[in-house]
Amino acid sequence: MNKDLNDLDKVILKKANVLLTVDNAIPLKLQLKPENVLIKDVYGNELTAVKKTIEEDKQYVTESTDGEKPVTSELVLNLTSEDTAFLSKIDRICFKLTAVPGSATGVPLKDTQWLKVTSIKLSVPGGVNVDLN
Questions:
Q1: How does pLDDT run across 61-118, given as a tens digit for each residue?
Q2: Backbone dihedral region of 61: left (phi > 0), alpha (psi from -120 to 50 degrees) or beta?
Q3: How many CB atoms lie within 10 A of CB 110?
Q4: Which of 29, 47, 106, 110 reaches 20 to 30 Å from 129, CA-CA?
């Protein structure tokens, strides 16, 4: 990500949202928790100044009811920092989804089931300020 975002150091913002569109063909409901998200720089170091939250109604990946037909869900990861150039320092976002109780029962897990992030978008609530000096 850094090669695309490193020139944003002139953009002043304190908050950004990462929107993930996920297709799930696994019969397990999955949850994204803030403690399971790591924001790293180009050297692999965690950017601890970036606070992470997940929107309450956008933290779950819905399970496939039959283990074959995928279901599409949207996750929203909110990033905030006092460092107004934090976006230019991000190289990768690592995350782990954990299984939680869902509604699919009696559907076996198979090696043909899959999970795919089909889209990643970045939005900036409230817009940005640009330092042109």
A1: 999 999 999 999 999 999 999 987 788 888 899 999 999 988 888 899 999 999 999 9
A2: beta
A3: 12
A4: 47
